[in-house]
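Regression check, flavin-adenine dinucleotide case 247:
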Amino acid sequence: MDSRNLIRHKTQVVCIGAGPAGLTASYKLCQNQIPVVILETNPIYVGGISRTVNYKGYLFDIGGHRFFSKSQAVEDFWTEILGDEMLTRPRKSRIFYKNKFFDYPLKAMQALLNLGILESILCVASYIESKLFPPKEIRSFEDWVCKNFGKRLYSIFFKTYTEKVWGMSCDEISADWASQRIKGLSLSKAIINSLISPNANQDRAKVTKSLINSFRYPRKGPGQMWEVTAERIKEMGGKLFMGTHVC
Ligand SMILES: Cc1cc2nc3c(=O)[nH]c(=O)nc-3n(C[C@H](O)[C@H](O)[C@H](O)COP(=O)(O)OP(=O)(O)OC[C@H]3O[C@@H](n4cnc5c(N)ncnc54)[C@H](O)[C@@H]3O)c2cc1C
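Current build output:
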């Protein structure tokens, strides 16, 4: 027996949590014949904060999840699990602010027109100020957005939206996370592009994560992905204990 097989036979993995991370890791381990035991606090649902809950026969997502990855391996994994149950849907996200809809990600010209002349001038002035005097330390989501969009746009759009969706203060979310989620979205480029070519945002959408205009979505919500993954793990011999909290 070679050493890899020996490791395979001797290794057992206990995975804490049946969220996307735990289930994906467990699925891959099972495929490699490594025995896995998953311990999940929730007595009913797998999927962690990507779960879909059933209330009186209606399915509710804890958060609306877009399935989009730059990694082909990740996209292939989702297809492997759900096949045709993965639908492609157009994206439309808007923020309702002061009785007006603002496309999200922001379209600079639309945002400035909706805000009115005075507010727009204040936003642009605040943006210029952030470029001239950037914060010394970029630690939090708040620092990162203020540096890239100016304090005023941050307080109008990013702060309330982000805190509502994630249930955390922007001061507690790391700058790394902001740079991953809204990478490539630059206010100055957006303004220039809107002036030069109204379709420029769409072209950039091909390369900018936050601007994608379609995404994949399981037919019965994100939880379906993790429920099927859990079933496959069990079929491959993995063990899943629900309602089991690890202290
Ligand atoms: C509103 C919202 C929108 C989102 N939109 C997107 C999106 O569009 N696209 C995207 O890719 N991501 C999105 N996300 C992020 C995505 O939900 C998370 O990145 C993902 O769920 C993280 O998976 P995880 O397994 O690391 O953690 P979790 O989903 O948090 O799962 C952890 C699991 O471990 C269990 N657990 C924790 N502690 C213990 C313990 N001590 N013992 C036993 N079990 C334990 C929990 O009960 C849970 O089931 C969104 C999140 C939210 C809230």
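Comparison notes: The longest helix spans residues 117-132. The chain has two domains: 3-89+219-241, 94-211. No diff flagged against the previous build.
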